[in-house]
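Quick one, C-alpha cells below. Sequence please?
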C-alpha cells in the first residue's frame, strides 16, 4: 500500500524509480511471460503425479498456490492459445505416464495460463449415460482439452476461475 501512496503522491523521479523497480522484477512488462515447450512437459508430468498421489480434489485445493488469482486486462491471442493447446495435448498423448488424462491437461493449461496473467476457467463436468467425468480449461473461447470429446456433452458441475478461490 505504501508503494501505491508513494506513486500517487510522489514526485516524477519517485514514480520513475518505482516503475523501473517493477519492470526489473518482471511485474510491469509490456510482454507477458510465455511458456516454453519443455516447461509444458514438466508441468504436465508434475500435475499428473500430484493427481495420482494426492487425488484430484486436493490438487484443485492447491491451485491457489500455483495459479495466481489475478488476470491481465488484455486477452490472449488465438495463436497463443492454440500453441498452448497443441503443446499440452501433444505432450500428453506422447507420454506413457500421462497418456491423454483430461484432468492433468486441464489443470496444466489452467496453471500455465494463470501464471502468464491470463484469464482462465477450469471446469469439471459430468455425463449421465454412460456415466463419465471430464475436466477442461476455457480461455478466450478455446477449451483445453476439448469440452466435449468425441461429441459427448458434459454438464459443468464445478468451475474454478480464480486460482482455487
Amino acid at each position: 500500500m505504501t508503494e501505491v501512496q508513494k506513486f500517487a503522491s510522489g514526485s516524477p523521479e519517485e514514480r520513475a524509480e518505482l516503475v523501473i523497480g517493477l519492470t526489473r522484477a518482471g511485474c510491469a512488462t509490456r510482454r507477458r511471460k510465455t511458456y516454453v515447450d519443455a516447461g509444458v512437459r514438466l508441468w504436465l508430468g508434475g500435475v499428473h503425479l500430484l493427481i495420482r498421489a494426492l487425488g484430484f480434489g486436493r490438487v484443485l485445493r492447491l491451485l491457489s498456490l500455483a495459479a495466481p488469482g489475478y488476470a491481465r486486462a488484455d486477452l490472449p491471442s488465438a495463436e497463443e492459445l492454440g500453441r498452448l493447446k497443441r503443446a499440452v495435448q501433444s505432450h500428453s498423448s506422447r507420454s506413457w505416464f500421462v497418456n491423454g488424462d483430461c484432468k492433468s491437461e486441464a489443470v496444466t493449461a489452467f496453471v500455465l495460463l494463470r501464471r502468464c496473467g491470463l484469464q482462465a476457467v477450469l471446469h469439471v463436468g459430468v455425463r449421465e449415460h454412460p456415466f463419465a467425468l471430464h475436466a477442461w480449461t476455457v480461455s478466450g473461447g478455446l477449451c483445453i482439452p476439448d469440452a466435449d470429446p468425441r461429441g459427448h456433452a458434459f454438464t459443468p458441475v464445478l468451475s474454478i476461475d480464480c486460482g482455487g478461490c
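The CA atoms of residues 34 and 148 lie 27 Å apart. DSSP finds six helices and four strands in the chain.
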